[in-house]
């Protein structure tokens, strides 16, 4: 993964800088997301690793994307095809999203709870995280009954384990030491 992100980073950075300069960050986010989905399509994968000339591959890829990709997005696809890099579009899209979140002062947080959280509980978690991280927070909530109770919150390097199973595990570790 590190190698892919190293290769994808210049493309993502160039696309992001262009998008910011032209006030088109959201449309570029949508274009890159769509183009990355095209690369992951089962019928497209063999073509990306096949023997098609780069110009033919770029033309075919642009036709598949249709109106979802504007002229500047098409130029990115052509450049990536010339360099044999269309297969890394999903990584470019992920890095672009990271640049976008940093630029917009936003962060995503994964919240895993034992039961479904109410809107009020989600709001409380969101407000607390926004204060702690000094960023706007978007919660991705999921349920894991094995937690018994409580929540686990992950955002970047931050992990807050307030689950009952986590507390029991820490207590067990302390008793054994």
UniProtKB/TrEMBL annotation:
Membrane-topology annotation of the record: Peripheral membrane protein
Protein name: ATP synthase subunit delta
Task of the protein: This protein is part of the stalk that links CF(0) to CF(1). It either transmits conformational changes from CF(0) to CF(1) or is implicated in proton conduction.
Taxonomic classification: Bacteria, Pseudomonadati, Pseudomonadota, Gammaproteobacteria, Alteromonadales
Keyword Cell membrane included in the entry's annotation: yes
Species for this entry: Shewanella holmiensis
GO annotation, cellular component aspect: plasma membrane; proton-transporting ATP synthase complex
Subcellular location: Cell membrane; Membrane
Keyword Membrane in record: yes
Gene3D superfamilies linked: N-terminal domain of the delta subunit of the F1F0-ATP synthase
Family recorded in the similarity comment: Belongs to the ATPase delta chain family.
Stored Pfam families: OSCP
């Amino acid at each position: 993964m590190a190698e892919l992100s190293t290769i994808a980073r210049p493309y993502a950075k160039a696309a992001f800088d262009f998008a910011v300069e032209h006030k088109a960050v959201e449309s570029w986010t949508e274009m890159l997301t769509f183009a990355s989905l095209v690369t992951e399509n089962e019928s497209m994968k063999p073509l990306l690793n096949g023997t098609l000339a780069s110009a033919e591959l770029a033309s075919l890829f642009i036709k598949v994307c249709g109106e979802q990709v504007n002229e500047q997005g098409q130029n990115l696809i052509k450049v990536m095809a010339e360099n044999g890099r269309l297969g890394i579009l999903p990584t470019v899209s992920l890095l672009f999203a990271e640049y976008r979140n940093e630029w917009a002062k936003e962060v995503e947080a994964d919240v895993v709870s034992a039961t479904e959280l109410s809107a009020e509980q989600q709001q409380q978690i969101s407000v607390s995280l926004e204060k702690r991280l000094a960023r706007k927070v978007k919660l991705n909530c999921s349920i894991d009954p094995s937690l018994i109770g409580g929540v686990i919150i992950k955002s970047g390097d931050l992990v807050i384990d307030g689950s009952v199973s986590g507390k029991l595990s820490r207590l067990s570790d302390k008793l054994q030491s």
